[in-house]
Amino acid sequence: MIQKNLTGTGVSGLAAQAISGIVIDAIVATGSTQATATLISSDTSVFSVVAPGTGAIFGQGSENDQYTIINSGANALLIYPPVGGTIGGGSVNSPFSLPANGTLSVLYLANLTIHINNDISTLSMPSGSSLIGHIASGAGAIARTAQGKLRDVVSADDYVTPQAAIDTGAGLIKFSTKIYILTTALVVSAGQRLVGDGIGKTFLLQTSATADGVYFNFPTYIPGGGLSDLSIMTGASTYLTGTGSTGAGIRLVQANGNFSCDRFEVAGFATGIHVKNCYYAKFNNFQVLYARDYGIRLASPSGGASSAGIFFRDAKVSNFGFAGDNTASIGMLIEQSGGDFLSALDFTSFNKGIVIKPQSGDFVVYLFMLQVLSDASTDDGITIDSSLSGIAALEFSQCWSAFSTNGHGVRFIGAAIDGVQWIGGRIRENGKHGIFAEGGSNLSFVGAQIARNSKLTTNTYDGAYIGAAVSSIQFVGGRSGNFASGLGHSQANGVQVQVGFTGSMTFTGIDLSNPGAGKSGLANNSSIIPAMVNCLPLFSGYNPPRNNLLAYTTVGTVLAATTTYMGANANQANEFSTFVVVGIAGSVTRMYVASTGAPGVGETFTYTLRKNQADTALSATISGAASVSEETFGAITFSKNDTIAVKLTTSAAAAVEAHRLVIEYSA
Q1: How confident is the model at residue 12 (pLDDT cuts 50, 70, 90)?
Q2: Poorest-pLDDT segment among 157-171, 233-247, 560-574, 579-593
Q3: Which of 240, 486, 546, 596: disulfide with 235, CB 3.0–4.6 Å?
């Protein structure tokens, strides 16, 4: 256009061309080195064919010479300075890379020194940032281009889809404050991290009815990666209260150390978080809402692998307000564990709160829970089920299982449970039993507060029900009864032991006061006598027998054909002068008698235990010429305020002897 205008004013064609410059287009870039690159021979050169690695080279110029290079090819064009020269402040003989669709304007400062003109038209090109320099402040900073600096963090907004940004392989993918519409899962196969602007600000909205939200599918055990400050939703809009996708909000496979998901939320997926075949992955400060199947699932491993060292901390996992199908939902399903840690988690309003159920061939061992709550389940709050495989070494500290509508607080199923310790915490106001132990061994409850269960039907279910298949169980401290609640319903027995129980049970310092009306603190229907120490109530037979030896004697000898009543210091003809009033309920289990000599052939000394001034079935007899002592056993029970006495009867011609007697009283 400039040349045409000039000739139109009478300037010759050659002069006009000299003024406006020569333009050559459809140039083909060649070579792969400075020596073989295409020579730039016109003022404006348009390269239309640019194969990968090919280039162009400037010849020696004069000061103030100007050239324009346009790359309309499909690949970056390598532009070399003259041999021995520089371009754009680069190293000697080093090329400048002009991106596809880029434009470069240069000025010769000397015959070998070429300056890049960063005019507005050049800088506005997609490659313009590569022409702007950048250097950080401070010693040791290095020169970079603005393009290199900007590409330190890959933004999802710079790509057609977020998946394209992830596929760059960048270590960090930044998401801004907006809603990103997904039609398939975002698949992360390397240790990359997805970072948003915050919960409720950056949304990944999955519109597919079957896809996951984010799928970390590591082909091998890769360390690192994760996400933070994101809301992962499903459905037509955010915070759908039903089920928008049958997939998982976050699915994690084969993470291996330093993987973490922090400050995030998931809502509307059938499964909130699904973890399989992982080591030392961490999930912190999050919430999962409206999960039809599982809020969190530690899935059974595959391929001979396992999971261990998984951390879940500071989270709310809730189906409160869920508008979908809640009939089979589980707050957390643990199918395998080799040392996992749960802390400060609240599972609310699922059909079942927490289910620990290893699959065949898998195990759940070394699982530690601290301040984990299972609230308002329809069915059982916490289920520990070994019907398919073994469970061992579980610890619940300061945990809570309460307000289940139709289920138990904590339920043990199967014989392959060994070593579950519940320390402190609450098991209260559940629909049925607080603790329902159908099987297991080495079950221990230390300082647990078990209160007002049997909410479904008052005074029907117990604080703890110990089934016949339980091998061993102990309660240390704590309480089981109807206390610390303004609700009107009552649990029945504090602890009930099923008929047929043959294991061991120990009660130390537990308060079993305040059972339901007509019920007991301990309803022991088995034939096993529990080991009990310092339990309450004191006077209802819950504590171990305290054996007391009561000694009786006569003053001097007793004549033949005599009935007398032995006392602590002397014998008396009147029973009232010798009997003892019982202060604590118990029983006489043994009586040992002795005399200073035998009664004689055909003669007897007979000692009879008396209760409330009447003979009992417990008696001992010394007879004949040789016997001088006799021990007898029995079980004569006494209540508080009953009287105990011993009657001595000598036969008609018995020898005149002195007598001693000891009875053993267990209270």
Answers
A1: low
A2: 579-593
A3: 240
Distance CA 283, CA 299 (A): 16
Domain residue ranges of the chain, discontinuous segments joined by +:
2-145, 184-190+208-225+241-533, 547-666
Q: How far is CA 6 from CA 67, 68, 116, in A?
A: 20, 21, 28
What global pTM score does this model have?
Answer: 0.71
Are 474 and 444 a contacting pair, CB within 8 Å? Answer: yes
- Tokens representing 399? 């945990």
Helix (H) / strand (E) containing 146: helix 146-150
Helix (H, G, I), strand (E, B) or coil at 130: helix
Peptide bond into 223 cis (omega under 30): no
**Coil, strand or helix at 290:** coil
pLDDT at 625 over 90: no
* Tokens describing residue 27: 């140039």
Using one digit for the tens of pLDDT, what is the confidence trace for 524-541? Answer: 999 988 888 888 886 444
Q: Hey, which bits of 290-336 come out as E strands? A: 294-298, 311-318, 330-334
Q: Residue 135's CB: how many other CB atoms inside 10 A?
A: 10
Q: What is the mean pLDDT of residues 137-154?
A: 83
Buried b (16+ CB within 10 A) or exposed e, 203-217: bbbbbbeebbbbbbe
Looking at residue 567, its amino acid is: G
Beta bridge partners of 287: 265, 316
Mean pLDDT (whole number) for 194-219: 97
* CATH fold group of domain 547-666: Jelly Rolls (2.60.120)
**Rounded CA gap, 75 and 352, in Å?**
59
| Full 3-state SS string of 46-70 | EEEECCCCCEEECCCCCCCCEEEEE
